C-alpha cells in the first residue's frame, strides 16, 4: 500500500526562516504541471510529503507546508501571525483599510462582547509592504525585467516570501523584538527556559500534535535552527520532545549566521565565548538526539572567524554577510539534497537516507554543493566528468570541514541534467565510446561510476532529478556571474550573458558526506573551548546554568569526536 | 559625581531625586495607560497590529504583555502585575493602579524632605494594618451555587458585556461544581477543557458534560455517531513503524525480507485484534458500541481493520485528554493491550463527530458521572473567541480562589474605603514621621473607588466624600453603585471580590512601591562600555 510518507518541517530562528522562505519559494517552483510529458511524472518530487491540503473558511482548498516556524517579534513584517489564507486579520496593508477597520469595529460593537465602557481602538501604523510584495498583491510581479533590489532593501524574510503558510505555522515570541545587531534570545539556556515555559510549550506541542494527527505515515522531521543564539536551546528541546512522543527520524540542520551578531551586554570576546558555548551544548544534544545533523554556513570557518571569510563557488558571487543572498544558497542546497528522499519513485525514506551516511554513530555529516554545476552549454555530462577529474566538483557548506576524497560515505543528488545531455547516441559518440562511463544509462549511474573512480575506498549513493533549480525572483538571480547562460550552464570560453537577461534556472549537485576528516570540525570547536571561562559569561551564570552540565557536554563532545577516528570505521 | 563615573566616564546615571523622578514618572505613565480599563465600566481595547492582527481585550495582563515595555521601572511593575495574574488570575489592573498611586502620594511627602526609608517603613506598617482590616471584613461563605455565581459574575462583568457575563457565569460555575463533585480535594482547573470553534454565524458558549476533542476519525467508513459507547483510552502505538525495524534488518533474499516485514506487521495486527476481541466480547448481541481513543498513532491498515468492526478510532489525542477522559467517562488509560478487561473501559451515552471546514471535532457526551467537562466556545472570529476564553479563564480562577479561601471580600471599592478610614484612625497611634506614610498609603488606596467612579462618569471627589462618610456611619461595608453613583451595600447587590486577590495586591504593591522608593541611583553601564 503506497502511502504519503509525511515529513514535518521546523524552523527556529530568524536565519532559519530566511533559509526556509527561500526553500518554500523553491518548492512552489517545483510544482510542475507538465501536460506535454517532457518530464516523466515519477521523476518529480512528491509534494505531499512536505505539504498538506486544507480548506479555509471561504471553502477554498489550500495547499500549505507542514511547517512550524518560530521567530522574534517584528520579523513577520506585513504577515499576520495567522497567515493570509484563513482570514482572522484585517487587511490593513491594503489601501481600503479604513473601511475594513470600521467594519470590524462595528461588528465588535454590535456583538455582545463589549462592556458598557465602550471600545477604544488602537492601531499601529500599517507595515509598509516591500516593493516585491506590493507587486505580488497586484499580480504584476515582473521576474524578467524589474529589479526589486531585494538584496539591499529586504529587511526580513517576509519581504520576499512567495509561499503562503497555514495559520498553525507561525509562532512569534511574545515581547522579544528583533534587533538587527544584537541577538535578543542570546543563550542556549534562555532557549531551553523558553521551551519549558507553559505559555509557549502547551500551544506549540499542541500544534505539533495537530500536524502529526493528520499524517498517515509520518516518517520524520526536518529541523532548521540558528545555532548561534538561544533558538538552539529551543530546537534541541523540541527534538527531545519529538523523540519522546513520536520516535521518528530527524534530519537537523544547525545554521550559522554569515556574520557575527553580538549579544546583549557582551564585548566581542564574550560574544565569541557565548557562541562557542551555544555550539558545544547544541552539538552535545544533537549527537545524542538527531538521526543526522549537518551544520551549514556560507562562511569558511566559524567560532573565530573575525574576518568572516566566506566560501566561494565558481560561477557565483554574493555579498558574504547578506542574509538574503547567503540564505538562498543554503536553501538551494537543502532543496537539492532533500530530493534524495522526496522523489516520487524512490523507495528511500528519511531514515534510510540518514542512516546510509551515518555509519558507526557518526551522525554529524558535512554538506557539499555545486551551483551552478559548471557544465558548459552543449557539453555532455560524460565529458564534463571526464574533464574535471582532478578538481572536486563540490564546494563545502559545512564550515571548517573538508571531507577529502578517500574513505568518504556520501549521498549525492544531481538535478537539472536532462537525459539527452548524458551522452551522445552511438553514431555520434566518437571518443565517448572509449570511456567506461558510456555504458551508463542514467545520470545517477554515471555519477556513481565517477565517484567510484574518483574517490578511493568510498561508498556513494546517487539520485537525480531532471528539474533544475529555479533561480527566478525571489531567488537572488544576481549572484550568478556573467559567464553563466540563462539556463545555468557555463557559456563557452570568455562569452558573457547579455546584461538584461537573467539566469532562470540552474543545474545543481548536492551531497551529504561523512569521513573521518570531519573530526577536525569537532576539534576546532573543542579547541575554542579552552578560552571560554564560563563564570564570566553573565548571561549563562545568571540563568542558573550549572558548570557540571557544561563539563558533561564537553566530555560527550570528545566521546563523539572519537567516533570519527580512523580506527572506528573502514 | 557618582563613583561609577570615576571608573567609567561613559556610564549614564541619575541620582537621588532624579532617580526617584524617573521611577515615579514611569509608574504614573503605566497607570495612565491602564486607568480606563478598571471596573465593569472600563473601556475595551481593540489592538490592531501593523500587519492586521486583531486583539480585543480589557485584561490588564494581556495589555501589559502586548505593550513593548522598554522602561526598566515600568517593566518591573509589569512583572509584578504578571505575577499577580499567575498566582490569582485577577487584579492585574488594580496592581498597576495601586503602585502608581503609592508612588504618586509618596512623591508629595518626599518632595517636602521625608526620607524614603521612613516612607517605606510607614508603608509596611500601613500594609500590616490594611491586611488586618481585610481579615476583619472578609465574609466567610459556604460553597454553594449562589455564592460562586456572585463572585464569578463580579469578575466576568469587568471583562465582557453583562448579558454575556451572566451566561458565562452560569457556565463557569456549573463547570467547577461538576468537576468538584462535592469532594473536598483541591480542584484541578485543567480538568475543564476550553475548546474553541470558529463558526461564521454562531456566537455561543456552552458547557459540555463530557469531552470535546479537536480531531476526528481518519477513516471514511468509521461511524459518525454512536450511542451507548464503551470508551477505551490507550497509549499504545498502532502503526507499523518502519523506523524501528529497518536498522536491525538482515536478510539475504527478497522473500526473507518480506517475511520480516510481515512478522513486524503481525505484531501490530495482534494489538488491533486484541481490541477487536474485546469489542466483540462486550458489544456483540447488545446495542452497545465501541470507541478507541489513542494517544499514539494508528496507521491506515489498523484503521481499516477497526472500521470493519464498526469501531470509531481516534489517534494522537492530547496527553492531557487521557486524564480527562478517564475522569469524564471512567475507565483507565491503558499502556498495553495485554490483559484487557471490561473494567478498563469507560462509558459515554453518545459520541459523535462534527465537521467544520478542515477541522473535525469529536464530542464525547452523556457521561454517567463526569469529573471532567468541556466549555465549548463558538465565535465568528478568532479575536472574539480569544476574548471569551480569557474571560472564562479568569472566571474559573475566581471561583477556584473562593473555594480555596472559603471567604469573600465585598467589592465595588468597599474594602478600600473601609481600609482608608481605619488607616486614618490608625495614623494617630503611629509615632513620628512614619504616620505621614500611613496617610499616603491610605490616600493611595482610594484610587480604586475613584477610578471606578470616573470610568462610570461620576465625579471622583464627590463619590469619595459620600463613600467615606457613609462608611464611617455604617458598620457594614459600603461600595459605589456604578449605575447611580451613590453608595450601596455590596452584599445587597452581590458584588464580591476574592480575598486572596486583595491580599496579594496589598502585599506585592507595597513591596514594589517601597523598593522603587528606595532606589537612589539609576545607572546604565553595560559590559561593553566597562571595557571601553
From TrEMBL, chain A:
GO terms for biological process: mitochondrion organization. CDD domains: misato. Residues 5-137 form the Misato Segment II tubulin-like domain. Its main location: mitochondrion. Residues 152-343 form the DML1/Misato tubulin domain. It comes from the Eukaryota. Belongs to the misato family. This is Protein misato.
TrEMBL record, chain B:
PROSITE patterns: TCP1_1 (PS00750), TCP1_2 (PS00751), TCP1_3 (PS00995). SUPFAM superfamilies: GroEL apical domain-like, GroEL equatorial domain-like, GroEL-intermediate domain like. The keyword ATP-binding applies. Belongs to the TCP-1 chaperonin family. GO terms for cellular component: cytoplasm. PANTHER family: CHAPERONIN. It comes from Drosophila navojoa (Fruit fly). GO terms for molecular function: ATP binding; ATP hydrolysis activity; ATP-dependent protein folding chaperone; unfolded protein binding. InterPro entries: Chap_CCT_zeta, Chaperone_TCP-1, Chaperonin_TCP-1_CS, Cpn60/GroEL/TCP-1, GroEL-like_apical_dom_sf, GROEL-like_equatorial_sf, TCP-1-like_intermed_sf, TCP-1_chaperonin. This is T-complex protein 1 subunit zeta. Pfam families: Cpn60_TCP1. Keywords: ATP-binding, Chaperone, Cytoplasm, Nucleotide-binding. It is found in: Cytoplasm. The keyword Metal-binding does not apply.
Amino acid at each position: 500500500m503506497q502511502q504519503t510518507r509525511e515529513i514535518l518541517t521546523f524552523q527556529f530562528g530568524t536565519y532559519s526562516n530566511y533559509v526556509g522562505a527561500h526553500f518554500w519559494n523553491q518548492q512552489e517552483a517545483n510544482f510542475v504541471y507538465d501536460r506535454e510529458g517532457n518530464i516523466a511524472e515519477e521523476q518529480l518530487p512528491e509534494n505531499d510529503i512536505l505539504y498538506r491540503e486544507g480548506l479555509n473558511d471561504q471553502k477554498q482548498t489550500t495547499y500549505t507546508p507542514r511547517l512550524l516556524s518560530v521567530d522574534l517579534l517584528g520579523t513577520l513584517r506585513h504577515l499576520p501571525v495567522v497567515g493570509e489564507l484563513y482570514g482572522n486579520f484585517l487587511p490593513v496593508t491594503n489601501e481600503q483599510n479604513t473601511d475594513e477597520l470600521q467594519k470590524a469595529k462595528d461588528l465588535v460593537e454590535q456583538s455582545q462582547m463589549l462592556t458598557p465602557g465602550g471600545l477604544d481602538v488602537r492601531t499601529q501604523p500599517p507595515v509598509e509592504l516591500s516593493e516585491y510584495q506590493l507587486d505580488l498583491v497586484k499580480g504584476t510581479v515582473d521576474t524578467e525585467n524589474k529589479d526589486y533590489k531585494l538584496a539591499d532593501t529586504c529587511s526580513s524574510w517576509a519581504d520576499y516570501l512567495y509561499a503562503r503558510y497555514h495559520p498553525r505555522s507561525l509562532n512569534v515570541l511574545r515581547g522579544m523584538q528583533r534587533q538587527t545587531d544584537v541577538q535578543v534570545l542570546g543563550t542556549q539556556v534562555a532557549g531551553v527556559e523558553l521551551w519549558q515555559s507553559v505559555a509557549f510549550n502547551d500551544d506549540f506541542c499542541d500544534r505539533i500534535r495537530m500536524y502529526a494527527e493528520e499524517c498517515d505515515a509520518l516518517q520524520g522531521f526536518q529541523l532548521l535552527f540558528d545555532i548561534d543564539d538561544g533558538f538552539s536551546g529551543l530546537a534541541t528541546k523540541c527534538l527531545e520532545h519529538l523523540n519522546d512522543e513520536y520516535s521518528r527520524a530527524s534530519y537537523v540542520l544547525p545554521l550559522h549566521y554569515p556574520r557575527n551578531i553580538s549579544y546583549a551586554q557582551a564585548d566581542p570576546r564574550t560574544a565569541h565565548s557565548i557562541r562557542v558555548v551555544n555550539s558545544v551544548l547544541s552539538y552535545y544534544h544533537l549527537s545524542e538526539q538527531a538521526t543526522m545533523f549537518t551544520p551549514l554556513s556560507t562562511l569558511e570557518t566559524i567560532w573565530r572567524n573575525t574576518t568572516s571569510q566566506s566560501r566561494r563557488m565558481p560561477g557565483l558571487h554574493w555579498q558574504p554577510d547578506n542574509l538574503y543572498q547567503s540564505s538562498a544558497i543554503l536553501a538551494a542546497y537543502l532543496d537539492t539534497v532533500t530530493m534524495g528522499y522526496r522523489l516520487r519513485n524512490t523507495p528511500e525514506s528519511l531514515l534510510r537516507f540518514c542512516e546510509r551516511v551515518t555509519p558507526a554513530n557518526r551522525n554529524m555529516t558535512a554538506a557539499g554543493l555545486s551551483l551552478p554545476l559548471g557544465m558548459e552549454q552543449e557539453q555532455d555530462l560524460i565529458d564534463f566528468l571526464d574533464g574535471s577529474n582532478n578538481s572536486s566538483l563540490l564546494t563545502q557548506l559545512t564550515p571548517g570541514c573538508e571531507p577529502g576524497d578517500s574513505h568518504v560515505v556520501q549521498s549525492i543528488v544531481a538535478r537539472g541534467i536532462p537525459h539527452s545531455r548524458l551522452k551522445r547516441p552511438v553514431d555520434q559518440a566518437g571518443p565517448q565510446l572509449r570511456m567506461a562511463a558510456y555504458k551508463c544509462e542514467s545520470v545517477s549511474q554515471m555519477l556513481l561510476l565517477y565517484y567510484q573512480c574518483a574517490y578511493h575506498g568510498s561508498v556513494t549513493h546517487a539520485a537525480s532529478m531532471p528539474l533544475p533549480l529555479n533561480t527566478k525572483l525571489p531567488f537572488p538571480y544576481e549572484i550568478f556571474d556573467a559567464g553563466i547562460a540563462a539556463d545555468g550552464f557555463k557559456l563557452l570560453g570568455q562569452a558573457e550573458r547579455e546584461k538584461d537577461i537573467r539566469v532562470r534556472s540552474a543545474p545543481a549537485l548536492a551531497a551529504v558526506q561523512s569521513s573521518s576528516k570531519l573530526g577536525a570540525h569537532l576539534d576546532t570547536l573543542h579547541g575554542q573551548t579552552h578560552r571560554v571561562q564560563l563564570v564570566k559569561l553573565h548571561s549563562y551564570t545568571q540563568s542558573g546554568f550549572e558548570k557540571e552540565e557544561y563539563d558533561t557536554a564537553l566530555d560527550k563532545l570528545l566521546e563523539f569526536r572519537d567516533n570519527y577516528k580512523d580506527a572506528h570505521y573502514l | 559625581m557618582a563613583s561609577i563615573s570615576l571608573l567609567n566616564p561613559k556610564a549614564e546615571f541619575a541620582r537621588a531625586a532624579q532617580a526617584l523622578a524617573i521611577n515615579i514618572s514611569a509608574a504614573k505613565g503605566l497607570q495612565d495607560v491602564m486607568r480606563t480599563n478598571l471596573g465593569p465600566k472600563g473601556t475595551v481595547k481593540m489592538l490592531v497590529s501593523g500587519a492586521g492582527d486583531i486583539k480585543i481585550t480589557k485584561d490588564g495582563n494581556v495589555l501589559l504583555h502586548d505593550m513593548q515595555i522598554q522602561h526598566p521601572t515600568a517593566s518591573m511593575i509589569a512583572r509584578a502585575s504578571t505575577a499577580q495574574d499567575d498566582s490569582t488570575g485577577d487584579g492585574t489592573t488594580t496592581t498597576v493602579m495601586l503602585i502608581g498611586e503609592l508612588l504618586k502620594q509618596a512623591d508629595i511627602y518626599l518632595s517636602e524632605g521625608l526620607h524614603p526609608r521612613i516612607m517605606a517603613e510607614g508603608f509596611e506598617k500601613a500594609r500590616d494594618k490594611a491586611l488586618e482590616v481585610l481579615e476583619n471584613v472578609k465574609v466567610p461563605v459556604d460553597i454553594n451555587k449562589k455564592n460562586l455565581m456572585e463572585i464569578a459574575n463580579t469578575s466576568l462583568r469587568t471583562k465582557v458585556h453583562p448579558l454575556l457575563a451572566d451566561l458565562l457565569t452560569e457556565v463557569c460555575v456549573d463547570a467547577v461544581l461538576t468537576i468538584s463533585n462535592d469532594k473536598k480535594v483541591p480542584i484541578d482547573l485543567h480538568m475543564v477543557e476550553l475548546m474553541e470553534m470558529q463558526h461564521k454565524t454562531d456566537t455561543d458558549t456552552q458547557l459540555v458534560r463530557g469531552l470535546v476533542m479537536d480531531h476526528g476519525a481518519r477513516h471514511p467508513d468509521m461511524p459518525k455517531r454512536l450511542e451507548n459507547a464503551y470508551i477505551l483510552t490507550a497509549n499504545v502505538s498502532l502503526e507499523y513503524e518502519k523506523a524501528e525495524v529497518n536498522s536491525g534488518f538482515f536478510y539475504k533474499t527478497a522473500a526473507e525480507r518480506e517475511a520480516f516485514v510481515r512478522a513486524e506487521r503481525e505484531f501490530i495486527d495482534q494489538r488491533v485484534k486484541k481490541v477487536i476481541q474485546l469489542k466483540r466480547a462486550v458489544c456483540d448481541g447488545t446495542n452497545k458500541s465501541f470507541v478507541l481513543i489513542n494517544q499514539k498513532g494508528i496507521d491506515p491498515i489498523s484503521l481499516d481493520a477497526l472500521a470493519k468492526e464498526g469501531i470509531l478510532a481516534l489517534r494522537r489525542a492530547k496527553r492531557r485528554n487521557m486524564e480527562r477522559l478517564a475522569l469524564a467517562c471512567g475507565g483507565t488509560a491503558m499502556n498495553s493491550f495485554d490483559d484487557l478487561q471490561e473494567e478498563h473501559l469507560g462509558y459515554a451515552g453518545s459520541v459523535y463527530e462534527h465537521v467544520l471546514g478542515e477541522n473535525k471535532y469529536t464530542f464525547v457526551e452523556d457521561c454517567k458521572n463526569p469529573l471532567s467537562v468541556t466549555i465549548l466556545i463558538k465565535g465568528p472570529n478568532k479575536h472574539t473567541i480569544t476574548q471569551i476564553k480569557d474571560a472564562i479563564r479568569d472566571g474559573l480562577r475566581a471561583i477556584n480562589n473562593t473555594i480555596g479561601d472559603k471567604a469573600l471580600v465585598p467589592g465595588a471599592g468597599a474594602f478600600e474605603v473601609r481600609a482608608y478610614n481605619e488607616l486614618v484612625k490608625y495614623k494617630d497611634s503611629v509615632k513620628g514621621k512614619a504616620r505621614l506614610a500611613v496617610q499616603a498609603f491610605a490616600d493611595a488606596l482610594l484610587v480604586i473607588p475613584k477610578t471606578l467612579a470616573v470610568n462610570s462618569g461620576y465625579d471622583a471627589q464627590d463619590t469619595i466624600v459620600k463613600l467615606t462618610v457613609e462608611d464611617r456611619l455604617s458598620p457594614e461595608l459600603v461600595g459605589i453603585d456604578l449605575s447611580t453613583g451613590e453608595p450601596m451595600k455590596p452584599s445587597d447587590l452581590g458584588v464580591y471580590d476574592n480575598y486572596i486577590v486583595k491580599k496579594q495586591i496589598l502585599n506585592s504593591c507595597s513591596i514594589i512601591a517601597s523598593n522603587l522608593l528606595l532606589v537612589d541611583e539609576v545607572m546604565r553601564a553595560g559590559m561593553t562600555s566597562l571595557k571601553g
